Amino acid sequence: MRTKAANASPSSKNLTTHELKKARRREQWRANKAKHRKLKDEKELRIMREIKMLYHLSVHKLTANLLPVINQSSTSGADEPARGIQLSSSISTEQAAAVAMALSNDKSFLHKLKESERPLVIENLNELAIDEWKKTEQKEKERVARIKHKREELKELIACTAGLKREIVQLKSRKAELRKLQHPLVQIVAGFHCFFQIGMKQEQMPDVRNYQRTYGYTPALQVLFDLQREEFDSLQSLKLHWLWYRSQFRQFELSITSYESLEVGEHTIIKTIGTLLLGIDPAHVKHGEKHQTIVCPLLQQFEFENANHVVKRITSEVDLIGGVQRAQGHIDPKDIFHTLRGLSQDFQTNSYCTSVWK
């Protein structure tokens, strides 16, 4: 230990432990860098050897194919005057390869050979390159064809999947509609509406005077605007009133588009959406004038008790304003009000309304 301390430089004695570690790391980094550079040089040298070997093999193959043609070309043109490049009959393998590579890169020489009577020289010069190019081109065509085929299969699969998704959505919506229609209360309301659509004309109405003496009122529609909102306490009451309404209009046709059920506590509400077609004769019929027809949006709600399926309340709303706007395309509220007032006057004075009171 004393000998080492004696041989150490004076400057190293003053270094701290941290500085010594830093110096060792710096020296280790230099050694690793030199080792890495050596490995890199060895790898590059090995690659260059492999490239040189492949180059010699390709030169040998090219020379074997071109040497007979080059020698034949040089011997056949010995009697002719020298023009341009002259080839020796005693050309070596390396020289033939160099000449072949030089001639293959000389465009003017290739053009002269192409116009001469010996085109085989050009074919032999480019034979290997053309074969390799054809193989590469064929492989590329096959690869492109495979990619195109896979792309077409993928498109067909995507289209088929999209079609199946649409069918699934349609089946789900159809299933939901069937479930709604299978609800027992929905079937009751649907059967009731079916009567208005099919069997209303064959239904017999009671005598007006007897009904009024018995119940003290008439179920006839007094004012057209009463259709906008009505309430009934049973299906029989709704049936009786609407049968009377049917006799007061030229046309009175019901159409239902959807049913929807909603459970609220101990009650179930069946909501129906549709249209009601009303045909009203004018009060003063003119020559060639026809009755007016409007198709009004309809909303009816039937409230049932879940225990005994008895109707507690029925609300019926007929959108007369929407019907007039749909029929005539009026947007101005004044025009809509004017049309509705005329329809109301025609309804009160036409024969269908007055026949109920006779």
Structure explained in plain terms:
This protein is α+β, with helices and mostly antiparallel strands. It has a domain at about 205-355: Nuclear Transport Factor 2, Chain: A, CATH 3.10.450. It has 12 helices and 5 strands. It has helices spanning about 1-5, 10-15, 15-75, 95-105, 105-115, 120-180, 185-200, 210-215, 235-250, 320-330, 335-350, 350-355, and strands spanning about 230, 250-265, 265-280, 290-305, 310-320. Strands 1-5-4-3-2 form a 5-stranded antiparallel sheet. Strand 4 and strand 5 form a beta hairpin. The longest helix is centred in the middle third of the chain and has 63 residues, at about 120-180. The protein is elongated. The termini are far apart. Residues about 1-10, about 75-90, about 115-120 and about 350-358 have low confidence and may be disordered.
Using brief descriptors, characterize the structure shown:
Nuclear Transport Factor 2, Chain: A; 5-stranded antiparallel β-sheet; elongated; disordered N terminus; 358 residues; 12 helices
Helices and strands in order:
Blueprint: H1 2-7, H2 10-13, H3 17-76, H4 93-105, H5 107-115, H6 120-182, H7 184-199, H8 208-215, E1 230-232, H9 235-248, E2 251-264, E3 267-280, E4 292-305, E5 311-318, H10 320-328, H11 333-349, H12 351-354
Antiparallel strand pairs: 1-5, 2-3, 3-4, 4-5
Helix pairs in contact: 3-4, 3-6, 10-11
